[in-house]
Amino acid sequence: MTTGKHDDDRARAEQTAQKQRRLQDEQDRLDSRKGGSSGGGQQDAAQTGAREHPEPPMPGQKLEKPGEESELDPRPQFMAPDYQGSEKLRGMSAIVTGGDSGIGRAVAVLFAREGANVSIIYLNEHEDAKETCRHIEAEGRRAICIPGDVKNPTFCRDAVRQTIEAFGQLDILVNNAAFQEHAASLEDISDERFDETMRTNIYGYFYMARAALPHLKPGSSIINTGSVTGLRGQGELLDYSTTKGAIHAFTMSLASNLAKKEIRVNAVAPGPVWTPLNPADRQPEQLESFGKSAELGRPAQPEELSPAYVFLASPVCSSYITGIVLPVTGTPG
Questions:
Q1: Which of 61, 181, 202, 206 has its CA 20 to 30 A from that of 266?
Q2: Of 122, 205, 207, 240, which one is the catalytic site residue?
């Protein structure tokens, strides 16, 4: 790829980030007129992990879209220090979209700990992406950071090409990049916002899968990030929930389509997770109760999601699993 093409991808990514911030500002103005909404749930938080995780009330804060993890307080727990790698992904290479922060960062770190080289696809959160790549390299694996907008099919093809050039192969695609902005009413969702959500969350997954497919071999896998909102709906995330339901259907359909090629396709459906996504969406006072309505009474940390992605990516763990949506929601059912 020429330097000019790299610059074009960066410029388009910055334009998308600016548009997302403008959509965020529009919703903030609507919230200020309507008085916003409050969270729910009263139960105490359960500490069920290998180490203690933060619980509500979470500190009220607001991040500017797309959201920098370095600005989030407390910082998300993504290192999974008690997780011991066992070469489940030895000799493989992976792409993780939205890999600069949140779930994507946690997945990238564990993939590296299991032996995979990782390509990080992100919008314009350059410092977050560099930090993720440093953690991958600290695990003894190779990492590259590729900024750009997954709504652009040309960029998706170029990102796959850069990954192949860097690592010589592609074995795992994790579609994880997402745009989310709440709305109290269907009437609040403009055509522009609806288009941004659909194109980022659905088109981006489709474009990345299509670009990756010619390079995937038997035994490779695609993992899509769905959501509990795609399973149960969410009244103030109408467009986002719609995309996540579509991602679940895309996962099952693509799994059927690729079964004869011996490529598995699965999804993980997280519940509330402490990442930049929600502080870049909700008002500070709403964020304080984030995750409290889950049965475990708190939001998950990214390191509590990432082992599920390792499980679904690894042929030694899940060779007979395809077309599933694995809920990791902190709630039964």
A1: 181
A2: 240
